Amino acid sequence: xxxxxxxxxxxxxxxxxxxxxxxxxxxxFKGEFTTAGSVNIDGEFEGSIKAGREIVVSPAGKVTGxxxxxxxxxxxxxxxxxxxxxxxxxxxxxxxxxxxxxxRIVIEEGSSYHGRVTVAGAGAAETAQQPA
Length: 132
What we know:
Blueprint: E1 6-7, E2 10-11, H1 12-17, E3 21-23, E4 28-35, E5 39-41, E6 44-51, E7 54-57, E8 62-69, E9 71-74, E10 77-79, E11 82-90, E12 95-97, E13 100-107, E14 112-114, E15 117-119, H2 124-127
Parallel strand pairs: 3-5, 4-6, 5-7, 6-8, 7-9, 8-10, 8-11, 9-11, 10-12, 11-13, 12-14, 13-15
Antiparallel strand pairs: 1-2
């Protein structure tokens, strides 16, 4: 399988086991979602998501809005800016329309991406200012 089965030394299955919050495949959520833990998005989300740990947008997931987490993995669709304090990855099934910011950014061949990319040292993405 692809490189997205192992992120930061953790398998995707192991990361999902540690997921604290899930927006299910048939769920739609609109608003602001904040957690100190991790979140997996299998359904539709509109608004802003901030997680202290990982954010995973599965192939069935769709996000319209701002996404910010320690590590972010996109296998579904995101229309909005994404900021990762550590690693940001777009899998081959991922589609992103928005700006990317992170300490390490990986865009797999076959994915779809439109926007600007800012790569900053670890932790620097956390304090980066968004352009006006």
